[in-house]
Each structure stands twice: as C-alpha cells, then as structure tokens.
Design goal:
By secondary structure, the protein is α/β, with parallel strands linked by helices. It has one domain (9-270): Alpha-Beta Barrel (TIM Barrel), CATH 3.20.20. The protein has helices spanning 19-30, 49-61, 83-91, 120-129, 149-164, 178-186, 197-201, 225-236, 253-256, 271-281, 288-299, and strands spanning 2-7, 11-14, 35-38, 70-76, 97-100, 133-135, 170-172, 191-195, 242-244, 308-313, 323-326, 329-332, 342-346. An eight-stranded parallel sheet has the order 2-3-4-5-6-7-8-9. β6 (133-135), α5 (149-164) and β7 form a beta-alpha-beta unit. The structure holds (4S)-2,6-dioxohexahydropyrimidine-4-carboxylic acid and zinc ion. Residues 15, 41, 106-107, 136, 218-219, 247, 249, 263-264 line the site of (4S)-2,6-dioxohexahydropyrimidine-4-carboxylic acid.
Length: 347
Amino acid sequence: MKIIEIIKPDDFHVHFRDGNILMAVVPETIRHFGRAIVMPNLIPPILNGFDAKRYKDEILDVIPKSNKFKPLMTLYLTENTRTDELEEAYQQEMIFAAKLYPAGATTNSEFGVGDISKIMPVLEKMSDIGMPLLIHGEVIDKEIDVFDREKKFIDTVLDFICSELPNLKITLEHITTKEATTYLQDSSINVSATITPHHLALNRNAIFNGGISPHYYCLPILKREVHRKALVRAATSGNPKFFLGTDTAPHLKSDKESECGCAGIFNATYCMSILAQLFDNENSLSQLENFTSINGAKHYNLKLNKEKIKLTKSETPITFEKTLKVNKDHINIFNPNFDVYWKVSTS
Ligand code: DOR
Ligand code: ZN
C-alpha cells in the first residue's frame, strides 16, 4: 500500500449553480478542496458585488461550520459592466476576479461579450488594480470548426489582450490544445492556465465510442490524443503556469440526455483520485501537489492551505458511484473508464 500526503488542494474553476443543485454539489467539492473560484454563469448571471454577496451567502449556508472552505466569487463581464462598480466590488472583497465569456461560447454565455473592444476600459482598470481576468478562450464564429475555436481565440483575442495589457493577470481557463500549452510556456509570468481532469483523462474518441456519449460532452470540446498528451505533459511538468481548475459543471441527467444536450461534466466527486492515478501513470506523483495545491495559489497571491489530505493506493480499483441524487433527478458523476486505485482521506 502506498500513501502520499499533500497540501489540501484548491479548485480554481467550479460551477455550483444554485437551489437544489447547489445543495447537492457543494458537499462534493468541500470534501477535498480548501477553496474554489466560483463561476458566475447563473440565470440571471452574477453581474455585480451585491449579486456575488448574495450568491456567496447561499453557498456558505450549506457548509457546516466545522469546514473552513472558502468560496472565491466572480463577476460576469458584459459590455455594460461599469468600471467604477467593478473596482468598488473588488476593493471591498465582494469579488475575487471577473470572467470573460465570449457571447454564445458556452452554457449561459448569451449575456457575455460580443466585441472585445467594448470592455477594454474595464480590462485596463483590472490591470491597474491587480484584479484577475478569467477567460473562456473560444471564438464563436460559426464558420470556425468547433475543434479549432480555442486556437483561433488564442491567435486573435488572447494575444491582443496580452499585448495591450501586459500587466493584466490572466487565467486562460480549461485549456484543451497543444497550441495553448505552447502559448502559455512562451507568455509572460502574468498569464496562467487551468486544466480539467476530464481533458487530462480523455480524448475526443470518448464522445463517440460505439454510440454518442453526452456525459463526455463539454466546452471546450475534448480534442485529439496529441492534445491530451500535451496537457498531461504541461500538468505534470511542474511549470507553475499550469494548475487545477476542474470546471466541474453539473447538469441534470435529463438535460444532458436530450435532443440538445447541455455542455458540462460533473467531476468533483472523484477528481483527486483520478488526478492521482493520472500522475501515478506518468511516474509524476511528486508533481501532483504543485498542480493541485501550490501553482494556482501562487498565481493568485494566496497563502497555501494549512490542512493536508492523504491519498492511499489500494490493491483493487475503487468503485465509482454512478450518479448524485438531486431530489427526484440525478447528475451523472464523471468516470474516466480506466482503473483508479487512489482513495482520498482528509487528515
Ligand atoms: O462544458 C462546460 N460547461 N463548459 C463551460 O464553459 C461552461 C460549463 C457549464 O456552465 O455548464
Ligand atoms: Zn466552466
């Protein structure tokens, strides 16, 4: 039996939703993670500090007092976001970061930004006050192939923002391509990227394996094996620019298995077990703590968590629960379909 102990991880990209789904999924994240950056793409979205405060209270309400989990709140950028309101909410610590969704790029992104030039004054202010910008990095042009949308975004939008605002702290979220890893390696120290467990575990074949698998559909969509391999190399390299953001994105089973199924994979439950297995398979367990517990905190100038978690490798693979119950409905829990031997215990 093999045991490792690491600093308690942070998840720098989660979707908690609200209402009954929030009540079901928050316990899954707070079991293993010390902090999480909470995405603002609710209906209606989190548009200002007051929305964020109300949403944070809803999250804190379902967390037992004994758990020190800290949600880090975000604001959803629109073409109408007011620079003075954003600055005040940030200075008052009502929000931790702002999220840029290109309008129409993903779930509940229709209020997002169509024309990047419209938000340049806001981004300039963020750069001045040191506020992080989180980016869903995909163009939305219908003529661009869905598998090329991230690369196109990097070449046309991200590179523009980085050269206009070299001091802006940026996180390119849930990267999926070899090109993204290369861009990040060559970019300034202010630009980092999150990587999800599902993009590390699977390539696009998983979606079309003897039939269509809606539970492996997410955005940005899974890519070819060459890209998955590049992501694994980046995550296990120890390069501080790459860290965990799970993009755990719960949708009810009925909304995934439908004529127009939602994008999103709910992976909170077995995330750390799956990552330990992936790093173990690469003989890189020594880099797991950097990826899950150190690099992201440093990027955001946060102190490292004080608590630790223990991971134990068992003789037999763990059995995955298939679903998480939400009232009478269910959410499918991400299963990468390979053997996972690592169990988590908190100490
Ligand atoms: O797959 C995704 N699901 N990607 C996103 O960017 C959003 C997320 C969601 O909110 O469901
Ligand atoms: Zn997301």
